[in-house]
Write a structure and sequence with these properties.
The complex is a heterodimer of chains A (424) and B (351). In chain A, 65% of the residues lie in helices and 6% in strands. The mean pLDDT of chain A is 89. Chain B has two domains: 145 residues, Periplasmic binding protein-like II (D-Maltodextrin-Binding Protein, domain 2, 3-Layer(aba) Sandwich); 169 residues, D-Maltodextrin-Binding Protein, domain 2. Chain B is built from 16 helices and 13 strands. In chain B, strands 1, 2, 3, 4, 8, 9, 10, 11 and 13 form a nine-stranded mixed beta sheet that branches. A two-stranded parallel ribbon of chain B has the order 5-12. The longest helix of chain B is centred in the first third of the chain and has 24 residues. About 3% of the residues of chain B have low confidence. Classes of the chains: A mainly alpha (424), B alpha/beta (351).
C-alpha cells in the first residue's frame, strides 16, 4: 500500500517534471531575450552614432597658391590686412574664366571663411613670407566637404541641392588637379565652438566640462564622505537622523532642473556669481551628486565588518583612529566607485546648467573657472539644433567623444573595485 | 580625512566669493541673451567680431525672446546682459519693467526679416494654402461649416474638407510649442490673418477684442497639430519620415534642406528669399535686438560690435548673414538703423 503510494508520488513528480523543466527553460530564455534585446538596442545606437559621426574626424582642404602681396601688408598692423582678398585673388587666378559678380561670389563660397584666419596666423608667425607665393592647404567650405563625403547628392536637379551645377564643376576641376584632399580634422579637437561647421571644435566644451567636474569633485567628495562618516559612525539613531536620511534619499531622486533653479536663485541672485561660469556649474552639480556619493559611501562603510572596528577599539585606538586608520581605507574603494558614477552622471547633465546660463554660444576656450563656458552635452544639444547639414556629423562625433569619456570613467570605477575590493 | 574634508570645503567656499568678486567687477566680454531665431545670426556676427577685432568673442545664450527680455530688464550692471535678441518687438509691459528697473536708455535695432514656412517632404506634392485654410485646419474652434455664425470644435480631419481644392490627406501639422517665438509669430500672422477673412469674426475684433484673440490664437489640441519641440531639425527629420505631414519652422531650415523639403505656397506666394524680402509672402516677421546704452563704453567692445553688425558686409543684400538665411531690410531702412546706432537713438514706446 505504502509502496504503491510512493510510486504514485514519483509518478506525479515525473509527469510534472517535463513541464517544470520547460518552464525553467522558458524563464531562462526570457531573461536571455531581455539581454539580447537591450544589447541590440545599444548596438543600434552605437552603430548609428558611429556611422553618422566618423566622417566628422576628416575634413576637406583645398590647396591654393597664395601670393602674399607686399602691398597688402602694413608690418605694424598685420591684422588689418585683407586676408579674404588673398584667398579671392588666388581663386580668381585659378579659374580665370569665371566672370560676373554672382558667379565669383559662388566661387568664393567654396573656401571656408576660416581660411582668412589661417593665413593671418601664418603671417603672424613668419613675416618673411610677405612678398612670396606659397602653396597652402586651406579649409574648404562645409558644403564642399558634405558634397565630397557624399551627403549632398550629385545626380539631382540643381534646385534640389545647395551647391549649383557650376560649383560642382569647379569642385571637379579642383579635384582633378589634386587640389582637394581629405585630412584628419585637427580643428575638431583644438578649436572652440563656431557657426561654421568646418571651423567648429569641442575643445571649449571639453575644457569647460573638465573645470566643472573638478569643482564638483573637490566639493562633493570631501563633503559627501564627511557626511557619510558622521551619519554612519557618530550620529545617534533618533528621529532627526532618520529625517536626514529620508531627505538624502529623496534628494537623490529630485529632477536635476530643480537644482538648476536653486543655483540660479542662490549662487547667481544672492551671491552674485558670474553667469555661465564653470564655478557655478560645479556648485550646482555638487548639490546634485552629493546624495549619490553619500548613499554609496554609507553603503561601503556599512559593508566594513564590525570585527575590524571592534578590534581597533579593542587594542586601544580612539574612535577617530579606528575610522581614519582602518575603516576609511577599507571603505574607500566603494566610496570612489560611487563618486566616479556620480561624476559620470554630472558629466552628462544639461538641464540644471540651462538655468545658470551655460547653454550658450561660446567661441573662446575657457582659461579659468570664472570664464564663460559650456560643457560637452550642451555642445551636443546646440549642434543638434543648428540648421547646417554638416552639424549632423559633428553632433554624432561629439556624442562619441562624450561616450568615450563616460566609458573611461565607468571602466575606472570597475577597475578600482576589482583592484581594491575585499571580500569578507 | 574628515577634518581635511571639512577644511577643504570651507576653504573652497571662502575662495568662491573672492573669485566671483573679481569676475563681476569688470566683465571684459559682451553678454547677449534672447531669441533662438536670432541666435544663428547673432552668433555668426559674434564669431567674426571675436576673430577680427581685439575684443573677446561675445557670449550668446539662446533663452527665447521672452526669457531674454526678462534677463535684460533686471537692471544695469556687469551681472546683467548687454544685449537681448528678439524675434518680435519689445512689448510695452516689458518696456515698462525695464524702465522701472533702471534700464531707461535702450537702443532698438532691427536686423532683417525671417519667413515662417509651412513645408512638407518632396516625396509628395507641393501644397497651395491660404491663411484661411491654415486657420480652419488648425484652430481649436472654427465657424460652423453649416454656415451659422457660431463656433464649433474643429470638425475637419482632412485638407479636402477644409478646402475642396486641397488633397484628400489627413491634417497633420508639426510645429513649435507656445514658448517659441516662431509659434507667436505664426499665430499672429497666419492664424489671425486667416481668421480675419471671416467677416463676423473680424467684426468681433471691434466689439470683444479678448474673445477675438481667443478664437484666432488658440491652436487645436486634438492631435492634428503636434507640438514637436523647439528643435527645428527634429521637425525636418520627422517630415522626411512622414511625407504626409506638414511642418512649421523658420525659413533658414528650409533653405538648408532644399533637397528634401518644399515650402507650401501661402496665399499664392512661394516662400523664397526674394518673395520674403519683397514682403509678398504673408508669414514673415521682423527680427530685432536691444542694447543697453548705459553699458556702451563700460563693457568693452559694444559699440564696435554694433558697427560690425550694422555694416553692409554683414546685413547688406550680399552680406554674410544672408548665407545664414537672414532676409535683409531694404537699403533705406538699413541706413536708417545704422545711423540710429551711430547717434545712439533711445527707444521711446507709448502704449
Amino acid at each position: 500500500m505504502q509502496l504503491e503510494k510512493k510510486e504514485s508520488t514519483m509518478d506525479k513528480v515525473n509527469v510534472g517534471l517535463a513541464k517544470r523543466y520547460r518552464r525553467e527553460k522558458r524563464f531562462r530564455r526570457l531573461g536571455l531575450g531581455a539581454i539580447i534585446l537591450s544589447i541590440s538596442f545599444l548596438c543600434l545606437l552605437f552603430t548609428t552614432i558611429v556611422a553618422n559621426g566618423w566622417s566628422a574626424f576628416y575634413k576637406t582642404e583645398v590647396l591654393l597658391d597664395i601670393h602674399f602681396d607686399a602691398e597688402q601688408f602694413d608690418v605694424d598692423a598685420l591684422s588689418a590686412a585683407d586676408y579674404d582678398a588673398l584667398v579671392r585673388t588666388s581663386l580668381k587666378n585659378f579659374f580665370p574664366d569665371v566672370q560676373g559678380r554672382s558667379d565669383l561670389r559662388k566661387l568664393y563660397q567654396l573656401v571656408s571663411t576660416g581660411a582668412a584666419f589661417t593665413l593671418q596666423d601664418i603671417v603672424a608667425n613668419d613675416t618673411s613670407i610677405i612678398g612670396s607665393t606659397r602653396k597652402i592647404w586651406l579649409p574648404a567650405d562645409d558644403e564642399v566637404d558634405m558634397f565630397l563625403k557624399g551627403y549632398i547628392p550629385r545626380d539631382v536637379p540643381e534646385s534640389d541641392r545647395r551647391l549649383t551645377d557650376k560649383q560642382v564643376d569647379w569642385i571637379d576641376q579642383l579635384a582633378a588637379g589634386d587640389r582637394l584632399e581629405r585630412k584628419f580634422n585637427t580643428t575638431f579637437f583644438t578649436a572652440g565652438d563656431s557657426k561654421e561647421p568646418e571651423l567648429a571644435g569641442i575643445r571649449g566644451a571639453v575644457v569647460g566640462s573638465m573645470f566643472t567636474l573638478i569643482i564638483t569633485l573637490m566639493l562633493s567628495f570631501p563633503i559627501g564622505v564627511a557626511t557619510a562618516v558622521y551619519l554612519e559612525e557618530f550620529a545617534p539613531r533618533n528621529k532627526w537622523t532618520d529625517l536626514i536620511e529620508v531627505n538624502i534619499n529623496n534628494l537623490a531622486a529630485v529632477p536635476s532642473i530643480v537644482f538648476g533653479l536653486l543655483g540660479l536663485a542662490i549662487f547667481l541672485n544672492v551671491f552674485g556669481m558670474p553667469r555661465s561660469a564653470p564655478l557655478v556649474g560645479g556648485l550646482v552639480l555638487t548639490l546634485m551628486t552629493l546624495p549619490t556619493i553619500i548613499i554609496a559611501s554609507r553603503a561601503s562603510l556599512k559593508s566594513v565588518p564590525p570585527s575590524i572596528r571592534e578590534a581597533a577599539l579593542g587594542v586601544g585606538a580612539s574612535k577617530m583612529q579606528a575610522i581614519t586608520h582602518h575603516i576609511l581605507p577599507l571603505a574607500l574603494p566603494g566610496m570612489m566607485t560611487g563618486t566616479i558614477i556620480g561624476m559620470a552622471q554630472a558629466l552628462g547633465e544639461t538641464a540644471p546648467l540651462l538655468m545658470i546660463g551655460m547653454v550658450a554660444f561660446i567661441v573662446d576656450v575657457p582659461g579659468s573657472v570664472t570664464d564663460p563656458s559650456t560643457v560637452l552635452p550642451v555642445q551636443i544639444y546646440l549642434w543638434a539644433d543648428s540648421p547646417e547639414r554638416a552639424f549632423v556629423e559633428k553632433t554624432s562625433a561629439a556624442i562619441m567623444v562624450l561616450l568615450a569619456f563616460l566609458i573611461t570613467m565607468n571602466t575606472c570605477a570597475v577597475l578600482l573595485r576589482k583592484k581594491f575590493e575585499r571580500r569578507w | 580625512m574628515l577634518k581635511k574634508g571639512i577644511i577643504l570645503a570651507a576653504a573652497l567656499f571662502a575662495v568662491a566669493p573672492v573669485l566671483n568678486a573679481q569676475a563681476s567687477s569688470g566683465r571684459d566680454f559682451i553678454s547677449v541673451v534672447g531669441s533662438s531665431t536670432v541666435y544663428p545670426f547673432s552668433t555668426t556676427v559674434a564669431e567674426r567680431f571675436g576673430k577680427t577685432s581685439k575684443f573677446k568673442t561675445p557670449k550668446i545664450e539662446s533663452t527665447g525672446s521672452g526669457g531674454g527680455m526678462k534677463l535684460f530688464c533686471t537692471g544695469i550692471g556687469a551681472n546683467t546682459p548687454d544685449i537681448t535678441n528678439a524675434s518680435r518687438r519689445i512689448k510695452f509691459t516689458e518696456f515698462e519693467k525695464c524702465q522701472a528697473n533702471g534700464v531707461t536708455d535702450i537702443i532698438e535695432v532691427k536686423i532683417g526679416y525671417d519667413g515662417i514656412v509651412v513645408a512638407n517632404s518632396k516625396k509628395t506634392d507641393q501644397m497651395s494654402l491660404t491663411t484661411k485654410d491654415l486657420f480652419l485646419a488648425l484652430a481649436k474652434d472654427v465657424p460652423d461649416p453649416k454656415g451659422s455664425e457660431t463656433l464649433v470644435a474643429n470638425p475637419y480631419t482632412t485638407w479636402k474638407e477644409v478646402n475642396p481644392s486641397l488633397p484628400d490627406t489627413k491634417i497633420e501639422v508639426l510645429g513649435p510649442p507656445p514658448t517659441s517665438g516662431t509659434r507667436d509669430a505664426f499665430v499672429e500672422l497666419a492664424m489671425e490673418g486667416g481668421c480675419k477673412q471671416i467677416d463676423w469674426i473680424k467684426a468681433l475684433k471691434k466689439t470683444d477684442k479678448n474673445h477675438f484673440k481667443a478664437v484666432c490664437h488658440t491652436m487645436r489640441e486634438d492631435g492634428a497639430y503636434v507640438e514637436a519641440g523647439e528643435n527645428d531639425n527634429l521637425i525636418v527629420q520627422k517630415l522626411q519620415a512622414n511625407p504626409r505631414a506638414l511642418g512649421i519652422f523658420g525659413f533658414s531650415f528650409l533653405d538648408q534642406n532644399t533637397d528634401k523639403l518644399q515650402g507650401s505656397l501661402v496665399d499664392g506666394e512661394e516662400p523664397t528669399f526674394e518673395n520674403i524680402a519683397a514682403g509678398n509672402y504673408a508669414i514673415s516677421r521682423s527680427l530685432f535686438f536691444y542694447v543697453k546704452k548705459a553699458h556702451i563704453g563700460v563693457i568693452p567692445g559694444i559699440s564696435e560690435f554694433l558697427t560690425e553688425f550694422s555694416s553692409e558686409k554683414t546685413w547688406g543684400d550680399e552680406g554674410y548673414l544672408t548665407d545664414k538665411g537672414l532676409i535683409p531690410m531694404p537699403k533705406a531702412e538699413r541706413k536708417q538703423f545704422a545711423s540710429d546706432i551711430q547717434e545712439g537713438k533711445i527707444l521711446v514706446l507709448t502704449k
